[in-house]
Specification:
299 residues, alpha+beta, Diaminopimelate Epimerase, Chain A, domain 1, 2 domains, 18-stranded mixed β-sheet, 4 helices, 36% strand, globular, binds (2S,6S)-2,6-diamino-2-methylheptanedioic acid
Length: 299
């Protein structure tokens, strides 16, 4: 039987979305996902996302396979794409999407301004709540950041301690790193100039460092202003990507923990900007950004 898919991207972090609402088991295996993500022999994507029936009273469940077939707990850009995909599947997107520069908000599913569409999504990182706003942006309640070494996990500090400005040897250099989990693990390093980092060679050495038993997503951050960060990312299981939503959230949290930035900031990724807020009121992290449909097809 043919399986239909739709390709979406959030700031160039691209995903193959599968309508898996009629079964709670993904219709594709990790091996098939690896093939589909291949940019030369497949469709090309950073991951495959499945929209499954909700669990524990949620509207839907999200599962994702990275392009290497591993399964992360969460995916920030992916969940914005999933929200758009669900609105499309449910016929709630009131505007058609076109192909353009990818920057126009009019290409996102536009809900009725009076009633923004909100989904409660079950993920391996807990319940995450994306909301499709009337301006076409998707705002996601990403939940609470987890800061203890044991929760990340990393052995850079004892399990019940935070990991802030710890020294880590990678690629013959000593880096000052801060670790944050947004459900998935992140290691953040603040640098003078993100453009000067040889991500291709350094990234994998962070990802597979023995300090990180579940491997790690690695972000390099340049503080342009207290409310404006520039980020480059090496993703666990996917390598260099144009954007990483959980990484942008984790980086803002790391910036606040180290006193380098405000609780609300724009994070500029190679694929474009995300607005991130670590709320003083409820301590949750909110991420706002775009999600775009690119094309559909059949496998
Ligand atoms: O944690 C991981 O293994 C990541 N590669 C998952 C994907 C994260 C993502 N880029 C994001 O936006 O949070 C999708």
């Amino acid at each position: 039987m043919a399986i239909e898919f739709t390709k979406y991207h959030g700031l160039g972090n691209d995903f193959i979305l599968i309508d898996n609402r009629s079964s709670s088991v993904p219709v594709l295996t990790p091996e098939q996902a690896i093939k589909l993500c291949d940019r030369h022999f497949g469709i090309g994507a950073d991951g495959v996302i499945f929209a499954l029936p909700g669990e524990n009273g949620t509207d839907y469940t999200m599962r994702i396979f990275n392009s290497d077939g591993s399964e992360p707990e969460m995916c920030g850009n992916g969940i914005r794409c999933l929200a758009g995909f669900l609105a499309d599947l449910e016929g709630l997107a009131t505007r058609d999407w076109g192909l353009g520069t990818g920057k126009e908000s009019s290409q996102s599913p536009i809900p009725n301004p009076q009633s923004p569409i909100t989904y409660r999504i079950h993920t391996l990182a807990g319940v995450i709540t994306p909301q499709l706003k009337s301006d076409g942006q998707v705002k996601v309640d990403m939940g609470l950041p987890r800061l203890l070494a044991g929760e990340i996990p990393t052995n850079l500090a004892s399990a019940e301690k935070k990991v802030i400005n710890e020294l880590l040897e990678v690629a013959g250099q000593t880096w000052k790193v801060t670790c944050v989990s947004m459900g998935n693990p992140h290691c953040i390093t603040f640098v003078e100039d993100v453009a000067a980092i040889s991500l291709e060679s350094i990234g994998p050495q962070f990802e597979h460092h023995p300090a990180f038993p579940q491997r790690i997503n690695t972000e390099f951050i340049q503080v342009v202003r207290r409310d404006y960060l520039k980020m480059r990312v090496w993703e666990r299981g996917a390598g260099i990507t144009l954007a990483c939503g959980t990484g942008a959230c984790a980086s803002l949290v790391a910036g606040v923990l180290t006193g380098k930035c405000d609780r609300t900031a724009t994070v500029e990724l190679p694929g474009g900007p995300l607005q991130i807020e670590w709320s003083e009121i409820d301590q949750r992290v909110y991420m706002t950004g775009q999600a775009e449909r690119v094309f559909s097809g059949k496998l």
